[in-house]
Amino acid sequence: MTFEYCLPDEPLKILLVDDRQENLDSLRQLLARDGLEIVLARSGNQALDLLLDHDFALVLLDVQMPGMDCFEVAELMRRHEKTRSVPIIFVTAINKERRHLRSGYEAGAMDYIFKPIDPYIVRAKVGAFLELKRSQLAREHLVRELNEANRRLQEISDLKSDYLSAASHELRTPLTVIKEFCSLVHDEVVGPINAEQKKCLGSAVRNCNRLADLVNDLLDLDSIESGHNHLSRQEVLLAELLQACSEDFRPRCEAAGQELQVDLAGLDGPVAVLAAPDMITQVVVNLLGNAHKFTPTGGVIKLRARVDGGQAWIEVQDDGPGIKQADRERVFEKFAQLDRRDGPGAKGTGLGLPISRKIVELHGGQLELIASQERGCRFRFDVPLYSDEAHLRAFVADGARNPAGVPATWTLVLLSCADTVAETADSLEEDLRLLVRGGDDRIGQVVVAGQPAHAILLKTDPVGARAFLERAEGLLSSGYTTDGEFQVALLDVSGEATDELLADPAALIFTELNSHDRKGVPHV
Amino acid sequence: MSKGRILVVDDEPEIVESLTLRLQAEGYQVSAASDGLGATRKAIAEQPELILLDIGMPAGNGHVVVERLRNIAETSRIPVIYLTARTSEADYHQARAGGVCKYITKPFDAEVLLAAVEGQLERSRELA
């Protein structure tokens, strides 16, 4: 029976190691095949040299060699990154005692071939390993292609965003001119006009505003979808955020004869969430705006919040005509035109809900229109509650997401932090690629290594934080530099010393978690 | 007796025109420039009390102009309000960091603009 080695386009290489030339020659003759390159070595040393220069699919190693024995060769191969995973077959005539075999396997042999050599068996075993190598190569090739495809896609996405940005800039300029001149005539700056004319121009100005909103929303949505937006989450007091939103909104509701009810009883005590405050505000304002548009005079808009599980849930309920069951999902489509009669307030851009949904998803939540017994619409979304661990995770994730100037490898220095945070850091080790634990003595490593670094202080005492900053500043000013960026993020440092620390000149080199305008340091 | 002297800088002549009309109707004395170079020259020569500055102009964009003005004794204290069609983060933060007082996107609301102008002039007169 003949075996077909399934060889890929590139010739595979195998290494035969034996101190006897005649053994090498006969083995080579046995295994010779198109597309297979057979390399010979007469000693362990020679084999190791060759292993460093070639990418072998397999090594056949004679057990009884003088000089460096096969166990040593296997051991050395295991130690070296490049040769660690090359399969080894020990070729032996010695007794097949279990003990002997076991030490061979322990040393790193993947298989044995026994002398006298059975050609059938040798070809079968070699064939199997070659097959493995071939599929490994195929997989690696696929991965490379995927990475390249991703890179091209990202390029296209970036081009699209640049294009949108440039286009919007061009759109805004004539828009400004139209709006201003219409406004000037409307406001009678260039002479009196009659009521009819005023009405016409008022309409023109309103639509300029609508156009401007549309341009803004388009940019916003693109920025979020393409991952170009800056996401930076922090501890946010939910009640305060919601109060601020509702107070800003109240005048509009009152002017339209609507009642705005704010019910925060479900937040038992001060509740902090992990969120980017501007973005969540945008979502709430969008939902309130929709509610305002579709609620009739005399109607009620309800803003509610409560805590359940690990999340805070926020709801906006309006009093309007509601949305048909069939349309419940469509409402989140871009520019969806649904059959709702407009109440007071201008028509929207059609992008508000898609943008809001995306924002909530970025925060790890869901925005939904839920079926309710009451008339009208009830929109609900959730935001995760704040915790140091969640903040640390978000910090790493947001850092990995954000464009430009973010290092691919993070160095994390953990100093005197809570156990739970330490555990979180452990679980992030994969994302972080390099995790440094310990105290001030590790700062030198971090700064000097010449690699981009982020150091995070978590819930530590002010004294420890100060010591860290001083030490780091000393190192930086004595000439050590990093090619990338060195940032220290202070996460919830306890005590009043926080402000003092941040005002410290040393801290100017660093950036507080989630703030971005420190000199010379691109923000995370 | 004018309410104040303002220098308007924008490379779009129609925007300059509409802003001039608006501000003059409010009682301000308005002078104009259409690029960074002209803006610097006029600022030094006329010593306006406020500069309305478009960021995205050729020949020295707004940020560069402001930096130049800050480095000249006679103009270093003139407050600036940025007008911009760009809402990118970088522009926003740069505007804040340069000691600039206000930042308005185009298209703007006339009321918002006028309020900003008034507020800015009041503040700088108090400080003087």
What does this structure look like?
Chain A has helices at residues 21-31, 44-53, 70-79, 98-107, 119-186, 195-225, 238-255, 277-294, 352-362, 388-401, 419-427, 429-432, 443-448, 462-477, 497-503, 505-509; strands at 12-17, 36-41, 58-62, 88-92, 111-114, 234-237, 259-266, 272-275, 300-308, 311-317, 367-370, 378-384, 410-415, 433-437, 453-458, 486-491. Chain A is α/β, with parallel strands linked by helices and 524 residues long. Chain A folds into four domains: 12-117, 3-Layer(aba) Sandwich (Rossmann fold), CATH 3.40.50.2300; 158-225; 234-384, 2-Layer Sandwich (Heat Shock Protein 90), CATH 3.30.565; 388-509, 4-hydroxy-3-methylbut-2-enyl diphosphate reductase, catalytic domain (Cobalt-precorrin-4 Transmethylase, domain 1, 3-Layer(aba) Sandwich). In chain A, the strands form four sheets. A five-stranded parallel beta sheet of chain A has the order 2-1-3-4-5, sandwiched between helices. A five-stranded mixed beta sheet of chain A has the order 7-9-10-12-11. In chain A, helix 10 (388-401) packs parallel to helix 11. Chain A is elongated. Mean pLDDT of chain A is 76; it is low at 1-7, 402-411, 432-460, 478-498 and 504-524. With 128 residues, chain B is an alpha/beta fold. In chain B, 48% of the residues lie in helices and 19% in strands. Chain B has a five-stranded parallel beta sheet with strand order 2-1-3-4-5, with helices on both faces. In chain B, helix 2 runs parallel beside helix 3.
Number of helices of chain A: 16
Shape of chain A: elongated
List the domain count of chain B as a whole number.
1
Strand order of the largest sheet of chain A: 2-1-3-4-5
The CATH superfamily of the largest domain in chain A bears the name Histidine kinase-like ATPase, C-terminal domain
- The name of the CATH superfamily of chain B reads Response regulator
- H-E string of chain B: EHEHEHEHEH
Q: How would a crystallographer describe the biggest sheet of chain A?
A: 5 strands, parallel
Tally the helices of chain B: what do you get? 5
Computed over alpha carbons, the radius of gyration of chain A is: 34 Å
Backbone structural class of chain A: alpha/beta
